[in-house]
Amino acid sequence: MLYFCSKMKADDTEGLSKQYYDDPCFFVDIYNVGRGFIRCANENNNRPHITSTLELKMWRILEENLIPINPAGIFYNSESYLIQWTFEYDVYSELKIGQVFFYWRGSTAKKGLSPLPENFDNDTSVVVRLVQWSEPAVFFHIFPKPIVVLDAKFDCFNPDSPHLFLIRGEQQNELHLIEVPFLKKNFRSRGVFLVVIPSKSSIFRWKGSKIAAELELTVKMLNFRDILMDYVKSWSNFQVLEVEEGDSSYFFEGDDSEYFHVKVDCNFSPKLYYLSTITGEFSAVEVEYPLRKENSVAAFPFLQSHLSTSDETGLFLLDNNHEIWVVLDASKPSHFEDLSKLGMETATNYAQLREKSLGETVPVRLVKSDTDLIDFTNIFPYWS
């Protein structure tokens, strides 16, 4: 993931409020191919880019063994996988052949061995290690259809039980389905979900009331039943129904959990900064969303796991447009009062700049990262 760092004092927040954008990057050899493929007429065809996929293979890693997966694109979040991608790319009108091996580890998978296929070439092949949710944009372009990540082990998935999928991503070729636990609290007003109810032979496309217009248009262009049926054959004859936010209580009988019903318009992407004094100076590091695109609204660019860090500081500023949150990593000692005060002072100054641009009061709130406040947790795509 890329980072942008600006050294600052608590009253020096103007730099944070300015718009800064850097395209996603992915390097093949020494060449940055960005998102990978050139798909739009107005994109710069003169920069290095992927022209075609020549071969795509996928294996599930089982101890020291590689088990072939066909079709490629179905993942279980308790498993790890190896994806071999062979492709042609254009470097200033010169065609080259590249090969990348992606090691993908699910969010609940244990670390394990990393076997390689027999045809691995140490001289020409590139190995990239990924953890679920941190994939670069190019990763989603290499599969023929949107990938699906199931919340289970390979041999424990039950197709006859209900399932809930968040549609993640903003660009058509980067959309993918992430299964989250089947609970009402996992809905989001800024999200689009697929609710699979096998007992009704139905797939419901649930649309939040505050989704971005761009996402709504992009989602409409995909046939999600066909995508799911490639991976779960028993769902192939299910009907697809549209459901608006508010028409969901019958999915979750006896489930008293709740999500935050957003009331304000949401034509913005949240921004997250890691605040630190580890260098001896107070600094802010902007955490960048790997699927970011300029002028595109991303409802859920950050994860719960972003609110923890290996160093001692553990302090974050989360800009949710109409509210600013100062977040303390709950796993850290509680003796950083001075830094917390500096963080609140920074957030207050930052909020004043936001108020000037919005023309309304922007509150600053302090929370710990293990909070269960739903107006905070619903800023993230999933909260455990």
From TrEMBL:
Any Gene Ontology CC annotation: cytoplasm
Coiled-coil regions listed: none
UniProt GO MF annotations: actin filament binding; phosphatidylinositol-4,5-bisphosphate binding
GO biological process assignments: actin filament severing; actin polymerization or depolymerization; barbed-end actin filament capping
SUPFAM superfamilies registered for this protein in UniProt: Actin depolymerizing proteins (SSF55753)
InterPro entries: ADF-H/Gelsolin-like_dom_sf, Villin/Gelsolin
Extent of the signal sequence: none
Superkingdom in the source lineage: Eukaryota
UniProt protein name: Uncharacterized protein
